[in-house]
Amino acid sequence: MEIFWKTIALYNASTWGFQLAIVLIGIVLTVLLASRPGPRIKLGMKIYLAAVCFWLSVVYYYVYCSEREYYQVMAIFWGIMALMWVWDAATGYTAFERTRKYDLFAYLLFAMPFVYPLVSMARGLSFPEITSPVMPCSVTVFMIGLLLYFSRNINLFIVLFLFHWSLIGLSKTYTFNIPEDLLLVSASIPALYLFFREYFANSRRAGMKPDAKYVNALLILVCVAIGGVALVTTLRELFFS
């Protein structure tokens, strides 16, 4: 745990200027994508997301987190995520088109990366030993929000990778004493349900079997189970830590 927070402090102290630039570019691209979603802006966002994932893979994990165990695996994970966005940029698979069904929830997720450092400070931590907007879990929340905001025709492989990382975040709350990651898990559970409900609703219109009502019931069951694990984790963090 000491090594974990030491690497975070070193990362923040050394890269805060770059992180600020990354955040500002992300804000500008998101606003442009919402207001003027042309082909160049869509391509620019995908290139940006690929670059951020490469940043996390190389700069965050290989450079600043190399003292941690299994840092290579985490770096490979984010490298694969980056390649997924590169592939998506080349094929144009994710349309970045709005359905306007989940806008309010997406706005909440857009705010989450900025809530992370506030939670760290609220529990007594101070810069540079705090979570920041350009760390794996906060970037994951942002990407989930972005895909919900533009939820028509999304890359399901990217969604699955993001939710896999969310479950990894749940385990870190105890291992590294980082309850901030409960934000990611809490946001991911309803988002998981919404993504797959949308997917199976589209598949039903295409005549997919089994019937969508059974798939929907299964999704609810899975999300309730994950939510139960998150709730137990939260209660243990609050009352037994």
Q: Mind explaining what this structure looks like?
A:
The chain is mostly helical. Helices cover 78% and strands 0% of the residues. It has eight helices and no strands. It has helices spanning 2-35, 39-64, 71-91, 103-122, 136-149, 156-175, 182-205, 212-240. The chain is globular, with a radius of gyration of 18 Å. The protein starts with a helix and ends with a helix. Mean pLDDT is 81; it is low at 205-210.
SSE class: mainly alpha
Q: Summarize the biggest pleated sheet.
A: none
Global Rg: 18 Å
The total of helices stands at: 8
Distance between the termini: 14 Å
Order of helical and strand elements: HHHHHHHH
| Average pLDDT metric | 81
Morphology:
globular
Helix content: over 70%
Low-confidence stretches: 205-210
Instruction: Please indicate the percent range of residues in DSSP E strands (runs of 2 or more).
Output: under 5%
Number of DSSP strand runs: 0
